[in-house]
């Protein structure tokens, strides 16, 4: 039996059984906005979709959460679709080695963010998308098509992000001062704050990111490809090197899969040519990654032997 047809339900059930006793023990829920601070920590969900469309899930896989920086994966995908190589004139492809909202490298690097997964990089991607069209509508249309059901913004979270996002205003204005942002800072940040506020559950997220395990083919057959095979490899490469903030080296070492995390506690992980996983648990470790989400991915890799290495 190959992983394409394998029944992963027993593996996910085992992982859920091993994670549940650890819920509420370590880590901290992101509390920078009220809507995030009141999310109960003791939740855990896991879901996967194989490249041939088999699915499995366990725990709180149907509970919606704020996908936060996991959205950067999908806005990058849109920008690669629409801009191709031109995207890289404004955004780098190197790990930053700094926290996701750091300002320090931007000054020395003339307002060009290190990569599309730190806040500065995602804000630059949002600017590129606004130059192409209605970026908020584009991202919702992409996510809804990929998840095969309607996906929406959480307006309360978007409004709180806008009311408290002082560092993001600083990052956007700083890049604008270098001539690296074309659109109004307020429109760019409106897009960025909304993408952070997309609400999805693990099942939807595993479906939505499933094009990454199948060379860019849409997760649901019969629809146009999402990205080319080459672009898909590149997105996976960026996830491995830059997708988990300044923990990317450790994550490659201990899990060995391309991952993208968000401060809502969600993580998408890809086993190219096999499957895409989504895990969620709101309590974060010191690097801003979901503590038990990472633990669950470590367990998955140990139990299945799946890795890109
Ligand atoms: O923009 C922010 O800082 C928050 N909305 C957190 C985003 C996030 O998940 C961390 N990002 N890389």
Automatic annotation (TrEMBL):
> Could you tell me one molecular function GO term of this UniProt entry?
glutaminase activity
Q: Which reaction does it catalyse?
A: L-glutamine + H2O = L-glutamate + NH4(+)
EC category name: hydrolase
Give the superkingdom in one word: Bacteria
What gene does the UniProt entry assign to this protein? glsA
Name the source organism. Answer: Variovorax dokdonensis
Task: Report the protein name in the record.
Answer: Glutaminase
The keyword Iron-sulfur is annotated on this UniProt entry: no
The region annotated as signal peptide is: none
Pfam families xref list: Glutaminase
Sites binding substrate sit at 69, 119, 161, 168, 192, 245, 263
Record-listed E.C. numbers: 3.5.1.2
PANTHER family in the cross-refs? GLUTAMINASE
Q: Which SUPFAM superfamilies match?
A: beta-lactamase/transpeptidase-like (SSF56601)
């Amino acid at each position: 039996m190959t992983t394409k047809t394998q029944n992963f339900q027993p593996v996910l059930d085992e992982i859920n059984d091993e994670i549940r006793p650890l819920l509420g023990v370590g880590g901290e829920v992101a509390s920078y906005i009220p809507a995030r601070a009141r999310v109960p920590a003791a939740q855990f969900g896991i879901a996967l979709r194989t490249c041939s469309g088999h699915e499995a899930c366990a725990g709180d896989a149907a509970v919606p959460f704020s996908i936060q920086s996991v959205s950067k994966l999908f806005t990058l995908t849109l920008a690669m679709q629409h801009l191709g190589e031109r995207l890289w004139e404004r955004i780098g492809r190197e790990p930053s080695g700094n926290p996701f909202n750091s300002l320090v490298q931007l000054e020395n690097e003339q307002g060009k963010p290190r990569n599309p997964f730190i806040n500065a990089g995602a804000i630059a991607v949002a600017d590129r998308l606004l130059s192409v069209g209605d970026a908020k509508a584009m991202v919702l249309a992409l996510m809804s098509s990929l998840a095969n059901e309607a996906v929406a913004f959480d307006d309360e979270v978007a409004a709180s992000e806008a009311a408290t996002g002082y560092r993001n205003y600083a990052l956007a204005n700083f890049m604008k001062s270098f001539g690296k942002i074309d659109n109004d800072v307020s429109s760019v940040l409106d897009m960025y704050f909304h993408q952070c506020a997309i609400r999805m559950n693990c099942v939807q997220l595993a479906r939505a990111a499933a094009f990454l395990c199948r060379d860019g083919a849409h997760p649901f057959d019969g629809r146009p490809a999402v990205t080319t095979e080459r672009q898909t490899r590149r997105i996976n490469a960026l996830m491995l090197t830059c997708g988990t903030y300044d923990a990317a080296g450790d994550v490659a070492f201990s899990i060995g899969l391309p991952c993208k995390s968000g401060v809502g506690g969600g993580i998408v992980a890809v086993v190219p040519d096999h499957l895409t996983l989504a895990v969620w648990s709101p309590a974060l470790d010191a690097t801003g990654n979901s503590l038990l989400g990472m633990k669950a991915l470590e367990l998955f890799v140990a139990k299945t032997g799946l890795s890109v290495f």
